Amino acid sequence: MASVNSRSINITDNLSAKRTKSIAAFAAASRRIRKPRSPCFHPHRTQVLQEKPSRQSPATPTPGESADMDDVGRGLKAAQTSGMGSESAGNTIWKCSIRSTTPLVGDTGARLSLVVIDTDSEERSPVIKVDSWRPPREITKSDGTRGWEREGAVSLPAGIKAPGAVLVRKKGGASQETGAASQETGAASQEDKGGASQDKKGGASQDYIETITLVSATSVHTVNANSWVSSAHGWRVFFSGFAYLPKDTPLALRDERQGELKALQGTPETRVEKRKDTDRIYWFQTYNDLSSGKSGNLVRPVLGGSKELPYPRRLATNRGNERDGREKAPKNKEEYWLQQDDKFSFDKKEDFQGASMQGLEAAFLALLAEAADTTTPSAAALLPTAVVGLAKQVVSTITHKENPLANFEDFQDVLAMYMKASGSDFKKLLPKKLYPAEATASKDETRSGKASRFKTADGAWNFELSPDKAAEVDKIMAEQRVGPVYDSATGTPAEGTHSSFEGDSKPDASNTEERLGSKLFDFVKRKTTSINEYFSFKVPRVLDGRPDAWHMDEEFGRQMVAGYNPLVITALKQLPERFGSAIRGDHVNADLQGSTLEQLVSEAAAGGKPRLYLVDYWALSTFWADMEKDPGMPKGKVQHAGRVVMYLRKDKDGNDTALIPVAIELAHPNTHKKNPKLLPTAGIVYSRSQLSGDSRTLAVWRLAKMIFKSMDSSVHQLGSHWNRTHCVLEPFYISLRRQISVMHPVYKLMAPHFRYTLQINRDARMRLINADGVIEQIVPSDKYAMLYASALYRTTWNFATEALPEDLKARGMVDPATGKPWLDYPYAIDGLDMWSALTSYFDTYLRLYYKSDSEVLEDTELQAWWKEVKTEGHPDLLKFGHRKNEEELWGFAGPIPSIDKLQRVLATIAWVASGHHAAVNFGQYDYTSFILNTSSLSRRPMPEPGDADWKELTTAERLAQEGIILTYLSDPITAAKVSSTVSLLSHHSRDEQTLDEVNELLVDPKARAANQAFMTAMKQLESAIEMRNADARNWARFGLAMGDTGGPLPYTLLSPGSQAGVTMRGVPYSVSI
């Protein structure tokens, strides 16, 4: 991942040699541990590595006049030579530099003004005009990233020795300077914090500022802004990195602290006003923006704010509402509004949009199969309209009659999705143990090998574009990557500016390439991966080297504890008939190694080790009646509901060896019409012992497992993944920005856990979970997908049980006496170690600032945050009576009462954002892109004993049987969409921070030491996971034995570190993909 910016070690004249040595050692250790990544981290990050200054009596402000810059420069040079500050008329000469990670274009670095505020003396400098400095110069980092820097000498009042904050203002064009001079004559006051101005075209001029560094003869102070500063903002404040509880805020910074929070909170009026690009206000809104049209089949109900459809809140975008409460669509298909500091960095855009180009293939396939006039055929790709238009051009000559993509032919045809990537090793992907030894294929069976323009002569799927079309797409995607840099090209460059990109830019042009100039645009295109590099799917790890794993019962069970959705399994402690199931002992006893269903359930209920486990997806039946009556529901999708009971198998010595499914219960909307005596809560039971032993009915058993995995895929995407990470976390961050200052120790601890979450959720609302978005296209519930999400939130979500130990306890998966899992459960075992490290780190950190529980109760910012999260961010569950009280929902009632409770609240949030999300996200490609392992779609009702479909399946020959099974699963188009989606979602970017990396917001030495200890714990966890994966006793993760074509797969999803790409490992701090 891209290199990190170098950090200055800031040493004050009162810093002891011992402390200096410890800081340098920490910085060196951080450089060793961190993998390279982009310097853009988070808005308002600050870092000043010096002793926290003691409070002193306020000094009398010294106004001072601006000195001639040449004299200042000579004075600073002399001061640095002599080791003394040059003082004249009560002033001291400092060197100041501003650095950015965006390209030097247009008015970049021009018309900036600064004011420095001293922490101890409370003195403010006069306004410093940056245009008096040297012109901005271009800088190139080791990873090729282009940025700029501007530096000069400044004269500060002698009382300024410990800068605590810097005020920054960006002005618009030269025409805006008139009338502003009166604001420049002295130190910026609270009254002149307006002064917002526009450029000559009426839009805001803006700069991305990474750092502001102040250097005196004795100290270096670096304020990390990492923020877009706009001429529409007026004065912005960026604080030094020291953490202060509200009561401990230095007097000089109190007004600035409160003023910054007020700017982010807005007023009751501005919270609901239409958003402008440069707005910074955070507020809450229901999910009323999921419709993709004004009427008809693209309209979706509002989620949140009602008893029937409760839901968390999301960031307010305020485009105005239709009469029915739905938010109006943006004009000209613009992106939904998002605060600029929460958008992806320049490098994140490159990785995210580069990977997303793989989804263009899904756009072509969707248009081919559906001939749909839609601007969002592949939401996973987040494709701009222009790319979709190109896709339509490419497929415009292909008709439905020529469409060979209705079904895969057989299992080998599915595997041919990976033929290009596997090359000469393709035959190694073919299963060796698919059929019992006594089953033989008919001599007359041959593969048909249907021709297709999307296949090569040898049968491999191939979707590459012609060179000219690929170049056109690459250009469009490069334009999308430019982002806010586009707006930086609006103004006139600072005098004397020289950039490698200058010469042919046209700031007034409307075309992106002309406006930026060919040099900058060519640079962006070179850094954007070409579309054709993404048109072959790599072999997923679930298949690679283990071609027989996907069809084995042992693998089905293993994935429930170590796969992509390992947090739904529960211990079975009551007979299935108690919760309305049709599963009985006759269905399972033959597989229980001499025990019975009643015996094993009784032992578990009495506190013994459970040997039977359950995954229950009956909730997927919730909207069957509505779906049947809805004429807008597409044909060719069947929403099943059901359950699976699994048995923990043991060897002759009593050691656990595998978890296998022994009974699968399935139903669909017509099941009870065909079986009127069946309970409404029950389905048809498919017994392993009754089906898997016969080569004919083995196909039924395999199909039952595949249909169940389709349900698992839906619950995973809507529940375990979207609901329980992305969706529920957003209100915590919105309120964090509104109520807790960037100076607060809790903000500095928690902000990394929300990095990029707002953008990824915004993009999901635009093209993933919206009407006709990719989720609706790839799941059986279609337009009811997000209604299921609301139902799952209503019935299952409690913050109190999102903490990993509480979650495991609630599901009966741990021994109450020890807190350890009953079985080899990699997600739980590795996760509990991560949880322990998190809670230990958070406890140590919080006790650096809170000396008693009363200080927690008296923290006004913290308590305002917690109250707002409950009443504005997650109000529905209590308001509409879905929970009895706060204790059930939140774990305790009222304000946060103690350090221990605060640690639990924050650790729960951090766990959900990091470990939980990583476990359900970064294995998606390697498990769910392969439809024989996990098909997102079920297209036909599961056959029942004795019906025509059962007979068709059980009497067919091998290849025909395979073809029939594939008519129940995802078609090639849907498979391509899913592969594109999960490839994108499983992708680590270079600009990503994982738990084994330093939290750069922390400045106080003891806080950094606590963070260092946590990083060390993450490295130790990586080693422990490697050892567990190499231990043959761990049946759910032990590495493959030589020649084993179906053995376990090492569990790496909670291994903290990762490089860029699809790695099936790595735990980022935040939900950032």
Architecture overview:
With 1073 residues, this protein is of the alpha+beta class. Strands 1, 2, 5, 6, 8 and 9 form a six-stranded antiparallel β-sheet that branches. A hairpin with a 2-residue loop joins strand 1 and strand 2. Helix 19 (698-739) packs across helix 27 (860-873) and helix 19 packs across helix 30. Residues 1-86, 174-195, 197-202, 352-388 and 392-404 have low confidence and may be disordered. Residues 175-188 have a biased composition (Polar residues). Pathway: Lipid metabolism; oxylipin biosynthesis. It comes from Volvox reticuliferus.
Secondary-structure map with pairings?
Elements: H1 17-33, H2 69-82, E1 87-88, E2 91-100, E3 112-118, E4 128-129, E5 137-140, E6 146-157, E7 163-170, E8 206-215, E9 220-230, E10 236-239, H3 251-265, E11 284-285, E12 314-315, H4 346-356, H5 360-370, H6 385-395, H7 411-415, H8 419-422, H9 467-482, H10 485-488, H11 512-516, H12 518-526, H13 553-562, E13 570-571, H14 585-588, H15 597-605, E14 612-616, H16 624-629, E15 641-650, E16 656-667, H17 671-674, E17 684-687, H18 688-691, H19 698-739, H20 745-750, H21 757-767, H22 774-778, H23 785-796, H24 804-810, H25 826-846, H26 853-857, H27 860-873, H28 876-879, H29 886-890, H30 899-921, H31 924-928, H32 948-955, H33 958-966, H34 972-985, H35 1005-1029
Antiparallel strand pairs: 1-2, 2-6, 2-8, 3-4, 3-7, 5-6, 7-10, 8-9, 11-12, 13-14, 14-15, 15-16, 16-17
Helix pairs in contact: 1-35, 4-9, 5-6, 5-34, 6-9, 19-21, 19-23, 19-27, 19-30, 25-30, 25-35
